[in-house]
């Protein structure tokens, strides 16, 4: 006797109304802006911008992945994963590496380097610092969530 089981994913539209949800959407939008501003230039000629591209694209993809996990409430179907710890590690590492990338980006922007790409690189540097502050905020909320779970 075979039984058919239907497994549907839930949709948590309220997540986007929380501060971590809003920060995550901001990270996605502005992170996309960071790497498109750099990708539109000859960044591959300068290793510093290659590093910024790596960090921006890597964490953009992972943030989209985590947004999908939180929006579909997939984390409730995989209780073996310590999601609060995973979120804390993800946001903490994103904050640290994005901070390094933003500093590298800002320190590499000079008109002497390439006057044609100066504005794109300067704008990407600004938005990289904004995204860094968003990841810092999400790291804080992840820490609060992790801390409340470990005290129970």
Automatic annotation (TrEMBL):
GO cellular component terms listed in the entry, alphabetical order: membrane
Transmembrane segments: 21-38, 44-69, 81-101, 121-143
One MF term in the entry's GO annotations: structural constituent of myelin sheath
InterPro entries (UniProt xref): MAL (IPR013295), Marvel (IPR008253), MARVEL-CKLF_proteins (IPR050578)
PROSITE patterns associated with the record: MARVEL
Region forming the signal peptide: none
Residues covered by the MARVEL domain: 15-147
Domain of life: Eukaryota
Topological category with respect to the lipid bilayer: Multi-pass membrane protein
Keywords assigned by UniProt, alphabetized: Membrane, Transmembrane, Transmembrane helix
Any one of the GO BP annotations: myelination
Localization in the cell: Membrane
UniProt cross-references to Pfam families, sorted A to Z: MARVEL
PANTHER family registered for this protein in UniProt: CKLF-LIKE MARVEL TRANSMEMBRANE DOMAIN-CONTAINING PROTEIN 8, MARVEL-CONTAINING POTENTIAL LIPID RAFT-ASSOCIATED PROTEIN
Protein name: CKLF8 protein
Taxonomic source organism: Dicaeum eximium
Lineage start: Eukaryota, Metazoa, Chordata, Craniata, Vertebrata
């Amino acid at each position: 006797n075979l039984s058919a089981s239907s497994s549907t994913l839930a949709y948590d539209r309220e997540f986007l109304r929380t501060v971590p949800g809003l920060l995550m959407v901001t990270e996605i939008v502005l992170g996309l802006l960071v790497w498109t501003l750099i990708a539109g230039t000859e960044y591959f000629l300068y290793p510093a911008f290659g590093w910024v591209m790596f960090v921006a694209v890597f964490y953009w993809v992972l943030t989209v992945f985590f947004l999908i996990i939180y929006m579909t409430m997939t984390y409730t179907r995989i209780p073996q994963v310590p999601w609060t710890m995973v979120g804390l590690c993800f946001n903490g590492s994103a904050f640290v590496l994005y901070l390094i990338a933003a500093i590298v980006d800002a320190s590499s922007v000079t008109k002497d380097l390439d006057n044609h790409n100066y504005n794109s690189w300067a704008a990407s540097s600004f938005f990289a610092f904004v995204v860094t502050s968003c990841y810092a905020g999400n790291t804080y909320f992840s820490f609060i969530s992790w801390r409340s779970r470990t005290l129970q």
